[in-house]
Amino acid sequence: MNTKSMLAGLLMAASLSLHPALAEQNLAPGFSQLAKSSSVVVMPVDVELFSMSAGGVNEPRADWTAAAQGHMRGALASKADKLGIKTLHLEEREADEFGELLALHAAVARSIALHHSVGGGWSLPTKDGKLDWSFAEAMKPIQAKTGAQYGLFVWVRDSYASAERKLAMVGLALLGVGITGGAQVGYASLVDLSSGQVLWFNRLARGSGDLREAEPAAESIEALLSGFPKVQ
Fold first, then answer.
1. Is 207 domain-assigned?
2. Does position 161 have pLDDT exceeding 90, yes or no?
3. What are the φ/ψ torsions at residue 37 (nearest 5 degrees)?
4. Which of 57, 60, 95, 152 is the most buried (most CB within 10 A)?
5. Is the separation of the CB atoms in 228 and 83 below 8 Å?
6. Looking at the domain assignment, is residue 232 inside a domain?
7. 4-17: pLDDT as tens digits
8. 40 close to 148: Cβ distance less than 8 angstroms
9. Is residue 46 situated within a structural domain?
10. Quick one: pLDDT at residue 13?
11. How many domains does the chain have?
């Protein structure tokens, strides 16, 4: 069995499905679609890949991360074309000045994932189950630089069991002890750059996927952007 597959069952309950009711939950109140004339700036993917040691420590892999950035950037460009929206892509060097905003998005996205996507006991009563989150005026500098109405943000962390970790998994399994391999967690957000409102959000959490190769990386982008607002 693939090492990541062992974690899939645990994460599946928390992962987002394509059920219409759940897809609607991922839209802000009063928002349902994008106009064809809308312009969307695709921010550089905030991605990092790790190798999981025998003891379960995630160790950063710069070479894997660089490969993933290239694969996901290409997949995002292809997906944007299929969606039929007018997009511009902010390159890494152009986005350097927005590093703090990318970090802010990551922090807010984690909160949305926990309190909205996972929900349950983590739900916030003040939100009433609605996607009601905003960056206020924080994203206006991106709008001023690009002229885009909306921003698409993607954040992903992915880990893979090392050879030592796999041996540990097999050895402990023989003793009746189960330990997990790597996991893929990601967030995608569509933000109104003027008002700062999060218009659409999707969460990915699973024990499968591989961003180190182009084809599976494209599948991850498809999963992250599933349920993206219609363009009409």
1. yes
2. no
3. -80, -5
4. 152
5. yes
6. no
7. 443 443 344 344 34
8. yes
9. yes
10. 37
11. 1
- Contact indicator for 138, 196 with CB cutoff of 8 Å: yes
Residue 61 CB neighbours (<10 A): 18
Structure-derived torsion over alpha carbons of residues 150, 45, 22, 124, reported in degrees to the nearest 10: -80
Of 148 and 168, which is predicted with more confidence?
148
Instruction: Give 167's pLDDT tier (boundaries 50, 70, 90).
Output: low
Q: Which structural domain, as residue segments, surrounds residue 180?
A: 5-227
Q: Which residue is it, tokens 């994008």?
A: 34
Start-to-end CA distance of the chain, whole Å, equals: 43
Q: Is the pTM of this model over 0.85?
A: no
Instruction: Give 22's pLDDT tier (boundaries 50, 70, 90).
Output: low
Between β-strands 33-34 and 230-231, what pairing exists: parallel, antiparallel or unpaired?
A: parallel
What are the tokens at 196? 């700062």
- 104 inside domain: yes
Q: How far apart are CA 211 and CA 33, in angstroms?
A: 29
How would DSSP label each residue in the chain? --TTHHHHHHHHTTS----HHHHHHTB-TT--EE-TT-EEEEPPPEEEEEEE-TTS-EEE-HHHHHHHHHHHHHHHHHHHHHHT-EEEE--HHHHGGGHHHHHHHHHHHHHHIIIIII-GGG--GGGTTS---B-TTTTHHHHHHH--SEEEEEEEEEEEE-HHHHHHHHHHHHTT-------EEEEEEEEETTT-BEEEEEEEEES---TTSHHHHHHHHHHHTTTPPEE-
